Amino acid sequence: MSLAFGLFLSTFILEDVALGVALALIAQGKISFLLAFLVCSLGISIGDLGLYYLGKYASKIPYLQRKIDSPNFQTILKALRGNNKVDAAVVISRAVPGTRIPTYVGAGVIGYSGLRFFILTVVSVVIWVFFTLYFGRAFFSWFDNNLLLALISFFIFIYLLKGAISLSRSPWLIKASVHSWRRWLDFEFWPSQIFYLPIVPYYIYLSLRHRSFLLPFYASPLLKHGGLIGESKWDFLKHLSADSTSTLSAVVVERRQSAADISQKRKSAGIYLPFIAKPDVGQRGFGVRVIRSDEDLHSYLTLSEGDVILQQKSRYGLEAGVFYIRLPNTEKGFIFSITDKKFPFVIGDGITRLGDLILKDPRARVIASVYFERHKMMLDEVIPLYEKFFLSECGNHCQGAIFLDGRYLSTPALLDAIELVARRIPGFTFGRLDIRYKDEGSLKLGTEFEIIEVNGAGSEATHIWDSKTTLIDAYSVLFQQWDYLFRIGGFVKSQGNCRRPELLRFLLDCVRVYFRNGPLTTSS
Q1: Is the pLDDT of residue 400 over 90?
Q2: What is the per-residue pLDDT for 436?
Q3: 29, 89, 323, 467: which could form a disulfide with 337 (CB 3.0–4.6 Å)?
């Protein structure tokens, strides 16, 4: 009986693991199929009901209650409560990764029928558990006495099954997956975990050569983790001169501030619609949005998880990333890299749907899933003849922007302009300035550009993502970049008065930033 009770408790932690353990116990004859089925079904059902009532309780919190009682939210609730798609969402989310918790909690928040939720949830749980244990039992029998191999194979099977169910939610996702293999043909689209692997041994080599593993953390001593990850965007932007034509009006706001306070704060800072909203701590274009109305801002703040920067939208349409480095004991820095960023678009023919236009484009179809997520409400719409439809307005490679080698734009005049900006930021000797500019001629003269963002030691020379760059050249640039960072960090450390790096917190922040997910993952 103690095994059954332990199995029951495990369903509140990870249900897939609980089902895997149940199958292992059944295979070993330590628990009957019927008992395992009843225990798992009961535990998972109680956990799901708990999520629903957590949402019900949350809806009574005064802050959330005010939001729910607002006219806009009530209009949404009225539509949802009379829509049978909510029923389908409750059932389907049982098998779709990442959707169950927000769906069940959300059902409680919107006041979805408790009896209806109970019936649909229990039925879907019973079917899911029975299916998993019944077919899983036969699956385990194929491995005879190799229990470990059976467990590993089971979890792989469940992962693939849920992935297939997730894809089946949208025919467009299935079409995108058909082209996903193309990512492996060009390192530009490789998963970052694979592409950056050679950096690890080179980092170790530099650590041994400089006799310190942590020198990069000292390169920007005034920033969190030396600017390698998790630093505040505002820590850079607040130092820019308000009188400079290159400075865009910006302000940082707390998510919990009232709408009236935020509106007053942004207007006092000279920020007017349309403007940009982005997390103060971002990464790789996470959560960048163009805000065109107060409703847009309200929705954004509801989804955000931390402080947000509001910034006036640039009047210029072209974008570049200028990587600046100033080595120790030198009077002036230099431009290490310039990335010329292009915003991808498709052109309508008056016949073809947007989704199919994306799939017809040789480059866009490789990362079609990114564009499909961003424009999911328009994929079935036909784009008018000759009309340009921009797939991305965010200058981030992982969000779909096209990066070209723009080092030909580097001039002494541009360096002088960048140097003036860099000197205003305390301790800034290594990093990338993302700017919007009017045209090529003005950029080369160091005029008519506006600074969108400043990135610290964790940024990179992004011109390597030009499709014409070879893999060897890309790694050569990155190795050189890390070499410069070690040299700067070593010099700063030698001057003393530096905070000791917090390695454990750094690793935790890496996990938090790189593996976060949610409704703000995709940019505008």
Answers
A1: no
A2: 96
A3: 323
